[in-house]
Amino acid sequence: MFYQSVFSTLLLLGLLGSLTAQTTIQGTVTDPAGVPLTGANLLLLPGDQGAASDADGQFSIPNVAAGNYTLRVSYVGYETLRRPLQIADGQGEVSLQLTLEPRAFTAEELTVRATRAGATTPMAFLNVDEEDIEPVNLAQDLPFLLRWTPSVVSTSDAGAGVGYTGIRIRGTDPTRINVTVNGIPINDAESQGVFWVNMPDFASSASDIQIQRGVGTSTNGAGAFGATININTTELRPEAYATLNGSVGSFNTQWANVEFGSGLLNGKFTLDGRLSSITSDGFIDRASSDLSSYYLSAAYLGESSSLRFVTFSGRERTYQAWYGVPKDFLEVDSLRTFNPSGTEKEGEPYENEVDNYGQDHYQLIYNNQISRNWSFNTALHYTRGAGYFEQYKAGESLADYGLMPVDLVDTVITQTDLIRRLWLDNDFYGGVYSLNYISDDNRLDATLGGGYHHYFGDHFGEVIWAEFASNSEKDFQYYQNDATKTDFNIYAKFNYELLDGLHAYLDLQYRRVGYEFLGFDRQGNNVDRTETLDFFNPKAGLFYLINNRSEAFASFAVANREPNRNDFVESTADSRPDPERLYDTEIGYEYRWDRAAIHLTGYYMLYRDQLVLNGEVNDVGAFTRVNVDRSYRLGLEVAGGAQLADGLRLDGNFTLSRNRIASYTEFVDVYDENFTYLGQEAFTYEETDLSFSPDVIAAGGLSYETLRLKDKTDLIFTLQTKYVGQQYIDNTSDENNTLDAYTFSDFRINFNWRPGFLRELSLKLLVQNVFDARYETNAWSYRYQFDGSPALDQGFFPQAGRNFLVGLSVGL
């Protein structure tokens, strides 16, 4: 199976030395005074051939096929240059002298650059542009659109990429991945995860995305403990536009949206927006989704400053499929989609076992290019969220809900069937800022930034119906737990060119987290608790532009991260876990051949006090995570691409890793033959595998572009394959508790037509899992002892077999 999944990568490596030469575009990039610009980015459009200028400002783009192109040249602090080029057959060599003009400001760049990695930042990162997103966007959540990028594993509760989805990077779970939109934190302040279902169709508003693997740069919000995803939506679109998008497909999936923009009005105003609706039944039974969202951005652009207001919102109503499918059902077609949610109700499952939540985001962003050297960015934000999970529960104890027994004539009722709603009503607000300085000679790039954020969460539960209502009233509230969290950080970043092509990077961050919540005292009573944590997160590294074909970097970073809500609330001060710490060492190298490139990154991520579930019950009777002294991820990432022939391109990436806990003790519940609880038994494991951390992840893609008629028409065929190695569901390395390795392939056709009466007309066909593989991407397990023998309950999340989506986009 493995050879099928990494075929593209092996073919890439075998072809690197066999590519034929064509026209070479070469030259220099300077400022108006003739000073060479080192690290300027050059890209040929259409396509992705490009280069970076060296220490003398020189560049070379070899083996360019005949055709009409636009050469895009960009450099921080300068206006982007676009030069049309016409390359004839056998032209040989084209020499260019390119001069970039200093620019007053670029609003979208100032918005996000403080938390972004630049061309000479010594870390592993990938930029995903709008041109990469648009061909694959057919209403699926961002984790599915990003699943072909290095070290990524994506999952879908409903099995088809709509509804609840998740993403892991290098095995790092979603609660440890920092996510920002326009530099503003998106992670939930308490769980620290990102619920993409609350942001349906957000990919349609993203102008670019940067994925940083490892600790990354200092950013705002939850601690980046393995990866960062920075999303930018503020790109200036100077021309008016309107686009209608829609798709239909398997499982009754339907997507419709309209995107619009005013262009630049009077050279000062812009308005951009989107309205979206997505519905799907899902592959899993009773895993339907009904999603809606909007995005609106209005900006005023002055001569050296800009003010932008951004608001976006998401509404989701999803039937819950988070219990998974029992293992015994997976091999039976009629049972493979079984969803046990709602089955506590006798007869038909409870039809309203749904998650019903809405979230509104508001951002006010101000940028000011103070001078050629200085720029300032600040933003205020507010997020309002409210919603509930509704659930039918059978045989619940009245006492657990604070209700009195019901005394009938001949019996006393102590249990009842009921319907409950678990509510979350929250507010999140704050501000971020960054002050940037670039020296006259461009050797020093320095940023001072930070932010302050305040979160208030109201958690409460309601009983909206009960068979025996006892002394309750309508919408009886049986618990309430408020929490307040503050998050302050300040950071300073320096990137200095020590010698020609050699850059030193230093990034220092201080972060303080304060949390007030209802917890337990030593006697097990509920009391108000307060925790304050202080973190220092330093990062340093070197980047070396060896020549115009190769570059290398090395870095070391430290990251700290606080426990989440459950770790605080369901413990006392004696049993509460400590914060986690990560020491991240990264070494990278990139080489560019005439028509190919390869990038290698080696990493060693050493965790101290990483938090894991071990089954132990703490002093208040709760299963909470515990610190393990030492664990690590050691890996090698390889990514590359090659232009095999005119229109034919091969891309691939793979990750080889070792992910271990040095020593791990598991506690399992013990029951007798009557299921009477007897206590717990401990088992210790040495050098055991970290859960959900495959040793091998590989992806490859082969695309062929044809029917190119004077930039008016193109037809692209793409076949992509993904391989994910075996994963352990818990931390015991138990071969009976695994997700099997799997391989799947997607086939895509994109047809783009640009007639005179339309800006663009695009047809998309996506056939997912084209070879109809059976596989599961996520699972849970509960290990215990029953009547003296080990027992294991499991739930798996199977993904859909062969399915399709077909879409149409009309650009006006």
What do you see in this structure?
A hairpin with an 8-residue loop joins strand 9 and strand 10. The N terminus is likely disordered. The protein folds into two domains: 103 residues, Immunoglobulin-like, CATH 2.60.40; 556 residues, Beta Barrel (Maltoporin, Chain A), CATH 2.40.170.20. The strands form seven sheets. It has a 22-stranded antiparallel barrel. The chain is mainly β and 812 residues long. It is built from six helices and 43 strands. The longest helix is centred in the N-terminal third of the chain and has 9 residues.
From the N-terminal CA to the C-terminal CA, the straight-line distance is 46 Å
CATH architecture of the largest domain: Beta Barrel
- The number of strands is 43
Helix content: under 10%
InterPro entries: Beta-barrel_TonB, Beta-barrel_TonB_sf, CarboxyPept-like_regulatory, Plug_dom, Plug_dom_sf, TonB-dep_rcpt-like
Protein name: TonB-dependent receptor
Keywords: Cell outer membrane, Ion transport, Iron, Iron transport, Membrane, Receptor, Signal, TonB box, Transmembrane, Transmembrane beta strand, Transport
Membrane topology: Multi-pass membrane protein
